[in-house]
Amino acid sequence: MGHDLSQDAEIWDDAYKLDRAHVFHSWHAQRNLDPTEVVTGHGVWLKYGDGREMLDFTSQQVNVNIGYQHPKVIEGIKKQAELLCTVGPDYANLARGRAASLVARRAPEGFDKVFFTNAGADANENAMRAARLFTGRDKILSSYRCYHGNTGAAISATGDWRRKPNDYSRGHVHFFTPYLYRSEFSATTQEEECERALAHLEHVIQFEGPDTIAAVLLESVPGTAGIIIPPKDYFKGVREITKKYSILMITDEVMAGFGRTGFWFALDDYDYTPDIISFAKGCNSGYVPAGGVIMSDPVAHRFDDIVFPGGLTYSGHPLAMGAIVATQEAMEEEHIVDNAYTIGKDVLGPQLTALYDKHPKIGEVRGKGVFWAVEMVADRTTKEPLDDATMKQIVAEGDKRGLILGVHNNRIHVTPPCVISADEATQGVEILDQMLTAAGC
Ligand SMILES: Cc1ncc(COP(=O)(O)O)c(C=O)c1O
């Protein structure tokens, strides 16, 4: 028996009550949740159910790069909805082809094919699948400090033939990537950190057995793990090591891609070419869920005559594709990636660094573009992370002052939409300054 709908009729206009009655939220114990109602948004602003206009320094899950309710993206989705709302992945469709071409042209030379997924996790699933089938090996090496998504068991649970070529639930090995502020390698400079992290990776590869390793999977900027900008030569070094052992390199651009770092892809600021790139979030700012895998030509051609055992009902969903086309065009026309670069260089970088000079509980400020972390510590010498209660207080101070801020452990993540203006960014940093003062930092 389903539940009695007449109970819902009484709360039909109340977003909060309906949410508490029926919505099961991600990543939370449900009992004490107290979600805020959001009604609409515009640019970097969100309107709450109580009427407050909030400045968003999170871009939600760091995905709304183009800002809220961009008219060109809304129009793109509307046009596609009027033409064709859905069609299966086996057909050729103009929006899908255009989206693939617009995404692929942001990748390095020699990346021409895009496999569309619904989000970032399944993009990485398919990137790993392609690497395993390409190499015939099953281990994937990735960083302890990373996030690549929240899927994994579905294909192992599958009973038919599709499980067998994908039966890789084993084979994940982790290693340490550069993080000078809390160096695993007792390094004191970025050069030392880079050199020692590369030596560590090569040792891990040798001890695991190079001929068991399909790929090294790395975020181009570890995001959720702390917006840790890798040293200039790190990826070049990883590329050399992976080539030496015929291991593929997968770059996860899900969070860092499409303008977040002030580059189309964060990897553009480094001197290397991976074999596979995964993407999602910023490709259409999540207006309609989408992600994908961009394959270098050798990887793509591997599947010219053999079946790629991967697929999704909504791979290349027309509405998501319409949103990608409109987003990519608007980002280009409105120089949104350049804006993110300039905001990072001229506004967020200098202003957040000035906060470091003023607030002793800031341990480090790091980032680029509209992708910044302010790492909070109890003590700058010991680097002991600031306690959870104070971090919660900082967020609450923001809420009172109209700023939405992302907090992860002892870090404040400053990740506004790429369309933010210099005035809006300054306004947000001024509020952050007040919040830190109010929280005794
Ligand atoms: C770097 C990275 N990869 C993958 C994912 C997973 O993406 P999704 O939540 O769209 O599945 C995320 C999500 O935050 C991410 O930051």
Automatic annotation (TrEMBL):
What is the native source organism of this protein? Bifidobacterium longum
A molecular-function term among this protein's GO annotations: pyridoxal phosphate binding
Q: Does the keyword Transferase apply?
A: yes
Q: Pfam families under this entry?
A: Aminotran_3 (PF00202)
Q: Which NCBIfam families match?
A: PRK06062.1
**GO CC list:** cytosol
Q: Which InterPro entries match?
A: Aminotrans_3 (IPR005814), Aminotrans_3_PPA_site (IPR049704)
Q: Keywords, A to Z?
A: Aminotransferase, Pyridoxal phosphate, Transferase
Q: Which PROSITE patterns does its entry note?
A: AA_TRANSFER_CLASS_3
Asked if Transferase is a keyword of the record, the answer is yes
The protein depicted here goes by the name Aspartate aminotransferase family protein
Similarity remark: Belongs to the class-III pyridoxal-phosphate-dependent aminotransferase family.
